[in-house]
Specification:
By secondary structure, the protein is α/β, with parallel strands linked by helices. It contains twelve helices and twelve strands. The radius of gyration is 19 Å and the shape is globular.
């Protein structure tokens, strides 16, 4: 299958490109920089210069492909609503090209959009009404495209930490914040839980959804359904020889910024349905082992 991948130069994107090529697919990857184009070519893919605001580049990529994996997102937490609007415009453009073809359109979402404090499943409805939950509208769009426009649209909810060597997401930012503070900080009693998945396992799942996913389905990219934040922070404190402290969510936001808010969210999530339906079996190291091996040197 010839696959158009947005975010092909990103942390999840690079692993997904490798996974696709190793399993016989061809990759056309959206990239923004010459060095990204060179890296993608070296990996065996074909670069297409553009970005999420360049609608014509998105349409060109979708037209040239047998399916689309949409991983790119503008991670602007100062204007998250604007970032989500850009995401929907990109999905609309690619969906317009794919309409009536039955081709797959796979988009990335996140488990953090699910209600807090309860075990979320693939059937759990996302939270609504909060600006940080605006990304759920992208998933709504894909479900509608599947029903009304003859597209095999699927949504993958990725864990808040898709981890592995070279990660630049939440965990590195959390570690940097603790270093700057001079203390390893968690909120409340530290019982907030995050799901986690290694990026190579996430890449395998992304390929399987492309190949076998059902139209209108949601899949959870979760290998570990609940890692306690106190265990994550305890490991950071122990390894970096920092005191471990509890703070209120408000204090943590002052200390860690935006990351101080999301580490207080209790987000246990199951992927049982995903694993059974697609035959996905995560095999890579868990989050705590990966942090110890790759994040704290």
């Amino acid at each position: 299958m010839r696959v158009f991948v947005t975010g092909a130069a990103g942390f999840i994107g690079r692993a997904t490109v490798q996974e696709l090529i190793q399993n016989g697919h061809q990759v056309l990857g959206l990239v923004r920089k010459d060095e990204q184009a060179q890296a993608l070519t070296k990996a065996g893919g074909e670069p297409l210069m553009g970005d999420l605001k360049d609608i014509e580049s998105l349409k060109t990529g979708a037209k040239a492909a047998d399916g689309v994996i949409h991983l790119a997102f503008v991670h602007d937490f100062q204007d998250f609503s604007g970032a989500c609007a850009t995401d929907r415009a990109a999905i609309e453009a690619m969906g317009e090209v794919l309409a009536g073809t039955g081709k797959p359109l796979i988009i990335a979402s996140g488990t953090l959009g699910c209600p807090k404090g309860v075990l979320a499943t693939e059937d759990t409805e996302p939270e609504r009404g909060h600006p940080m939950m605006d990304r759920a509208k992208s998933a709504d769009m894909v479900y509608s495209l599947s029903k009304e426009k003859g597209i095999r649209g699927c949504v993958i909810r990725y864990s808040p930490t898709v981890h592995g060597a070279g990660d630049w997401g939440f965990i590195p930012r959390l570690i940097d914040g603790c270093r700057q503070k001079g203390a390893a900080v968690y909120t409340g009693d530290g019982s907030a839980r995050w799901p986690a998945v290694h990026r190579e396992d996430a890449a395998v799942l992304t390929r399987l959804v492309l190949e076998k996913g059902r139209a209108g389905a949601t899949y959870n990219a979760v290998a570990e359904q609940s890692v306690a934040m106190k265990d994550i922070i305890g490991l950071i404190g122990k390894t970096l020889q920092l005191p471990v402290e509890s703070q209120s969510a408000e204090e943590a936001m002052e200390t860690l910024g935006f990351i101080g808010m999301v580490v207080s969210w209790d987000n246990p999530t199951s992927s049982d349905k995903t694993q059974k339906e697609l035959g996905w079996h995560p095999t890579r190291p868990g989050l705590l082992a990966d942090i110890e091996a790759n994040y704290l040197s």
